[in-house]
Automatic annotation (TrEMBL):
Protein name according to UniProt: Protein-export membrane protein SecF
Family statement drawn from the similarity comment of this UniProt entry: Belongs to the SecD/SecF family. SecF subfamily.
Purpose of the protein: Part of the Sec protein translocase complex. Interacts with the SecYEG preprotein conducting channel. SecDF uses the proton motive force (PMF) to complete protein translocation after the ATP-dependent function of SecA.
GO annotations of cellular component type: plasma membrane
Topology relative to the membrane: Multi-pass membrane protein
PANTHER family: PROTEIN TRANSLOCASE SUBUNIT SECF, PROTEIN-EXPORT MEMBRANE PROTEIN SEC
Keyword Cell inner membrane in annotation: no
Localization (cell): Cell membrane
Length: 394
């Protein structure tokens, strides 16, 4: 068995553990900081919406990419002075293609920009492909994405409620999902990657992944807390913490296994391809899987424990467990005192018995034989002395 497997076995048996629930204030504070940073980046920098959401014109041209390709095509497009052009977005794809994205343009300006791109690339204008995406179509895509997210969250709440028969579990899972989405979107705002339909697909995918991990932990919590109010061994938080420790190795294994290929796709999509759906999809998956595993271990179970500990039955259970722990601690403290007292008494009796013997050794006299107290008879009279066998009958 590997070392990680041995640790997992010890965690499952409860031989070693980390107090995830006891340190929940620290993890809540860390999540609050991450969410604040994400929201700050979202409101200050905003999302770099792809052309599919904001509308515009996209041009593709075959060209040998050099270090100055982006600057050359940017200057060439700006030189057209097209109305409402703004700052064009120029990206390279591999080493043989350039992509230029602009804001929505008039039909005449679309042709002028195409001609400028073709001139800079040294190819005929007919070889420059272009497609126009209206702003209304982009708005429809955005509205559908938001609607899909809302439907997903409602469905998640209902399914978890039906499965666990516990609304508090649904609330904890939904809060963890919102936490994951907020941080993922904040990373997109801070990094500056374009938000495309592939990004939306990635976000919905990581929500499912995070939910799956959370359900596994909650299922173990339900197993550990079944009939817990009828005993006084563990509180709900103790049982929840045990469940997290029993599943943490599995969560780490599945998360690392999922992050390795997604990380490879992210590197290829960013470094090699430069742009495209792979880059947009892989970043959402990579950040979402990592944050989802974190929330499934540190956030969702702690929220569930906080919600459940407020119930009257759990409060009574906490009092019983606390009383039992105090009683056990008092007994453990009294036991060494009793042993010490008994040892001191035995030592004192031994010293009293050894005192005459030490005096005899000091004076050189024979030791005084110890006398046992005679047992008095019922009448208190001395008993006749028994004669030897040889003198009997005389």
């Amino acid at each position: 068995m590997s070392k990680l497997g041995q640790i997992g076995a010890k965690l499952h048996r409860g031989e070693v553990s980390y107090d995830f629930i006891g340190h929940r204030k620290f993890w809540f504070s860390l999540s609050a900081v991450l969410v604040i940073i994400s929201l700050a980046g979202l409101f200050t920098r905003g999302l770099a919406l792809g052309i599919e959401f904001r509308g515009g014109v996209e041009y593709d041209a075959a060209v040998k990419v050099t270090d100055s390709t982006v600057d050359d095509f940017t200057n060439a497009v700006k030189a057209t002075n097209a109305k409402g052009l703004g700052d064009p977005v120029v990206t390279t794809i591999n080493n043989n293609k350039v992509r230029v994205q602009t804001k929505p343009l008039a039909q005449a300006d679309v042709g002028n920009v195409r001609a400028a791109i073709a001139k800079e690339a040294g190819i005929p204008a007919e070889q420059v492909t272009s497609q126009q995406i209206g702003a209304s179509w982009g708005k429809q895509i955005a509205d559908k994405a938001i609607l899909a997210l809302i439907v997903f969250l409602v469905a998640v709440f209902a399914v978890i409620w039906l499965y666990f028969r516990e609304a508090k579990a649904s609330m904890a899972a939904i809060i963890a999902l919102i936490h994951d989405v907020t941080i993922t979107v904040g990373v997109y705002a801070l990094v500056g990657f374009d938000v495309t339909p592939a990004t939306v697909i990635g976000v919905l995918t990581i929500l499912g992944y995070s939910l799956y991990d959370t359900v596994v932990v909650f299922d173990k919590v339900r197993e550990n807390t079944r009939g817990i109010t009828g005993s006084n061994r563990y509180t709900y938080s103790d049982a929840t913490n045990l469940a997290v420790n029993q599943t943490v190795v599995r969560s780490i294994n599945t998360t690392v296994t999922a992050l390795l290929p997604v990380g490879a796709i992210l590197v290829v999509g960013t470094v090699v391809l430069g742009t495209g759906p792979l880059k947009d999809l892989s970043l959402a998956l990579f950040v979402g899987i990592a944050v989802g595993a974190y929330s499934s271990i540190f956030i969702a179970p702690s929220l569930l424990a906080v919600f459940k500990e407020r119930e009257p039955g759990m409060k009574a259970l906490n009092k019983r467990v606390s009383a039992k722990k105090a009683q056990t601690a008092a007994a453990a403290t009294a036991a060494p005192v009793a042993v010490a007292t008994a040892g001191a008494g035995a030592a004192a009796r031994s010293a009293v018995q050894d005192t005459p013997r030490k005096a005899d050794r000091a004076t050189g006299t024979a030791p005084t034989p110890s006398t046992r107290p005679m047992k008095a008879t019922a009448a208190g009279r001395p008993q006749p002395t028994r004669k030897p066998r040889s003198k009997r009958g005389k």
